[in-house]
Design brief:
By secondary structure, the chain is mainly alpha-helical. The protein has helices at about 1-15, 25-65, 70-95, 100-120, 130-145, 150-170, 180-190, 195-215, 220-240, 245-270, 275-300, 305-325, 330-360. It has a domain at about 220-350. The relative contact order is 0.04.
Length: about 375
């Protein structure tokens, strides 16, 4: 809905400028859109919450009466509730109530997960509990793809991430198999053209890459993480030059690469306990990267890079102050040099902007 709102906002301005709609018509359309967002958006959100609560209620009821029911009745109740949820989703979808249909699908996915746990308990199935999570994620993935349910796919990604974290902690090493189900769910997000899902995939992969710094080389591989982030940023800039028709892909990958590089640099500064000279060098590199990201954000119109750059610069400066608070002279010198550098960059940016104004006016 949010991406649709952004697209229709631009279309309305273009249609009004072209004379296709009147200002009064544009205002009426915007009021209708706002009304739909307030009412239908709230209803869909409440339906999702209701599905979660009902799913827990079903599982709690069955679990509470589990021992007094015959096995056949137990299995029958679980499968009946599961298929009733998917049947209800089909009815709601045919009536155009897509939000409520997604809630019913999510309810069915929740009942499927509860059925896995309860049936394995009933037949005393031994094994790795994380495997049940992966099976649950597979069911959510099938429901999401087969029924075109984005919330179900998002839940599948959450289960995959939880599965990967559980296995990594159990094995106490990098759990590379996580990448396979992550890629499958990410492909489903791309197939359904769901941008929030792709961002969810990006966050999951970013967390995995950052965790490499704490798992590889006895927990001292943060330099590798920073290099991976820088490489992703460079690839995004190159991709934007070669394939400019995919701006969302390149801007998103640039932002995730920036976050990964910063995570590696911050770990090198504040977790590795470097000497003061190395620390100051890393701090300068981090600040230079953030300033470059801000410039690139302005150049490419990448608001995400701007926000990460501004926030990261503030956090970096504050962290440097806390880290070196015992050396007031070094603090003063560092902040003076950093302030002069940023002031010079601001002056250069202003001159470039002023020089570009006459060119824009004459073109």
């Amino acid at each position: 809905m949010w991406s649709y709102r952004k697209r229709i906002d631009g279309d309305l301005v273009r249609w009004r400028d072209a004379g296709w709609i009147t200002p009064e018509g544009e205002a009426a359309i915007r009021r209708d859109l706002e009304k739909g967002v307030r009412t239908l958006g709230l209803a869909n959100a409440l339906a999702i919450l209701a599905a979660v609560l009902i799913g827990f209620a079903v599982m709690s009821f069955v679990a509470a009466n589990w021992q007094v029911m015959p096995r056949l009745l137990r299995i029958g109740m679980l499968f009946a509730a599961l298929w009733a949820s998917y049947g209800l989703a089909g009815v709601l979808a045919r009536r155009g109530m897509s939000g409520f249909a997604n809630a019913a699908i999510l309810l069915g996915v929740g009942i499927f997960g509860g059925a896995i746990m309860l049936i394995s308990q009933m037949y005393h199935m031994d094994g790795n509990p994380a495997d049940a999570l992966l099976l649950w994620a597979a069911g959510a993935l099938l429901a999401g793809v087969g029924l075109r349910s984005n919330p179900s796919l998002a839940f599948a990604m959450i289960l995959v991430v939880y599965w990967g974290i559980s296995e990594a902690m159990r094995l106490d090493r990098v759990f590379w198999p996580f990448l396979l189900p992550w890629a499958v769910v990410s492909a489903a997000f791309y197939w359904q053209r769901w941008r929030p899902g792709l961002h969810l995939s990006g966050l999951a992969l970013m967390g995995f890459v950052v965790s490499l710094g704490y798992r590889l080389n006895d927990g001292h591989a943060h330099g590798l993480v920073a290099v991976i982030g820088l490489g992703l940023m460079a690839a995004s800039i190159a991709g934007e030059r070669l394939k400019p028709e995919l701006p969302a892909l390149w801007s998103g990958s640039f932002n995730y690469g920036l976050a990964i590089a910063l995570a590696g640099l911050w770990a090198l500064q504040f977790f590795e306990d470097p000497t003061l000279d190395i620390f100051m060098l890393l701090a300068v590199l981090a600040l230079a990267l953030l300033i470059a990201a801000i410039f690139w954000g302005f150049h490419a119109g990448n608001r995400g890079a701007l926000w990460i750059g501004y926030a990261g610069f503030s956090i970096e400066i504050l962290a440097i102050y806390v880290k070196t608070i015992g050396s007031l002279l070094n603090n003063a010198l560092f902040f003076l040099v950093a302030g002069l550098i940023v002031s010079a960059l601001a002056a250069i940016a202003y001159k470039l902007h002023a020089r570009g104004q006459p060119q824009a006016a004459t073109s």
